[in-house]
Amino acid sequence: MREHTALIEQIALYLGRPWKFNALEQASCWQRQIIDGQGRGLIISKEYNQPKFKISGRFDKRITDPQQSEFCSIGVSINRRPKAIAADIARRLLPAYLPAFDKARARYLENEKQAELLTNVAHLLLKASKGRKIAHQWSDAQKAVYFEYGTATIYGHSQEVSMDLRRLSIDQAIQIATFLTRTTPFQTK
User: What angle do CA 18, 24, 29 make, to 5 degrees?
Assistant: First the structure.
């Protein structure tokens, strides 16, 4: 793949702004990246024993929440000119990849907002009931507040929150019920 770095740099130039060759990502000897500076990227890897590149849209899990159906890639011959490969990327890959990336990014941001809401609810519950600690469960869509003997598990989906209260003392149950009836509705940003 090292011998193809110059070709990939030229492909990035032909793609035009904002795309550029990612010179910082040289740790891998089998793939290179072209990025746009906004989190989107293209991964270019050589097909094993074939004179072809596989070019895929990149989804960084730190900023997106991709679904399997959103992954897209194309194959192009290494022997083609950089301008022709860039035109193939622009014609065949980008129209599918860019909307899929934006959709995955929006889903990630919504999940982050939901996780923040659940964390706020868990902190309020912890404070109101004198619980011991908050634990993040299997995903950001679930939090648990631990008490001396019981737990409150908070689940979130979309704009709804559910709560399971298990093995609480009567005092803790009364504290939580009092807290829920006396507080004003929690406002999200």
Answer: 115
CA distances from 150 to 70, 166, 171, 179 (A): 41, 6, 12, 17
Contacts of 42 (CB under 8 A, 6+ apart): 19, 33, 34, 35, 55, 56, 57, 58, 89, 93, 97
Strand ranges, E, within 22-115: 31-35, 41-46, 52-58, 73-77
Q: What residues of the chain score a pLDDT lower than 50?
A: 188-189
24 phi and psi angles, rounded to 5 deg = -75, -25
pLDDT computed for residue 136 by the predictor? 67
Residue 82, C-beta contacts closer than 8 angstroms, at least 6 positions apart: 7, 10, 11, 13, 14
pTM of the prediction?
A: 0.75
